[in-house]
């Protein structure tokens, strides 16, 4: 369940096919830690997103338990940043030009969106209707090549609503038709790769019975709501340029599975071959390859890549822990198939990784 919290309410689904050998020799894994990252349990470095140019963004948690944003260049150089007044910075979206969006908490734990330009200028913003109480406010989590930002805001009644922000700062707010209007219900776009350049948006909504469902909002604002067969809770994690979405769902027995949904609405379920504990897709790239994590019988995480044809490669970062809540958690794969994510060691510390 740790991956779901890191990746902002999202992700799981699978289709058991032939497993490839783990850690093929052609794949190099580079570990990294942001200077200043803490070394205690729950601290460290989270590599969240990688773009075509191979730059990586995410956040790190220092020894005081505070989160800060970072950008890692292809050469391994780190740039750290925080919006003014931040008491915790979470970078959730980046485009190929290296514009970064996300959110931060102020001293009252109210959330605000931010945009960091490729030159490092930071602009903060709040969606219309965002609440001003603790754990309310604006959370941005996607930016596309056109500079459009998608995220959600929590209003004064703790209801969540989606928003789209143009490069000029104009907001359009939206709600999935089936979204509930009670506390902690509503509409949430998927993080990092929940928005296409054409303007399609995917994510999840919680209905009035507190059940999660998936949705796809097309560029004209028309919604398609969906659940894989047998789902009692659906979390959509990612969309690619073909409007193919990936995510996870829970069945009535409590088991989590992965799914992929094509633009015509066809849904295929899947499970990583060695996944008795659950399969959690995190990202689908333009080629249709899906990466994510699965839990073993001990509750430890392992990475996987599912090819567009449905074959699996499973892998672990050397040094990842083998206990419950530990292990390897891939978060994003770029068009070239490079993967970034984080692994949790036996002491509960997060470290970033890049798999080429």
Keywords:
mainly beta; Neuraminidase; four-stranded antiparallel sheet
Explain this structure to me?
The chain is an all-beta fold. The chain is built from 1 helix and 29 strands. A 5-stranded mixed sheet has the order 1-26-25-24-23, with no helix packed on it.
Q: What string gives the helices and strands in order?
A: HEEEEEEEEEEEEEEEEEEEEEEEEEEEEE
CATH architecture label name = 6 Propeller
Instruction: Name the average pLDDT.
Output: 93
Q: Give the class-level CATH name.
A: Mainly Beta
Question: What oligomeric assembly is this protein in?
Answer: single chain
Q: Helix coverage percent of residues?
A: under 10%
Beta strands, count: 29
In DSSP terms (H or I, runs of 4 or more residues), the helix count works out at 1
Radius of gyration, in Å, reads 18 Å
> What is the distance, rounded to the nearest whole angstrom, between the alpha carbons of the first and last residues?
26 Å
Topology:
Layout (H helix, E strand, L loop, with lengths): L1 H5 L12 E2 L8 E4 L11 E7 L5 E6 L5 E6 L5 E4 L7 E6 L5 E6 L5 E6 L5 E4 L11 E7 L5 E6 L5 E6 L5 E4 L11 E4 L11 E6 L5 E6 L5 E4 L6 E7 L5 E6 L5 E6 L5 E4 L7 E7 L5 E6 L5 E6 L5 E4 L11 E7 L5 E6 L5 E6 L1
Parallel strand pairs: 1-26
Antiparallel strand pairs: 2-29, 3-4, 4-5, 5-6, 7-8, 8-9, 9-10, 11-12, 12-13, 13-14, 15-16, 16-17, 17-18, 19-20, 20-21, 21-22, 23-24, 24-25, 25-26, 27-28, 28-29
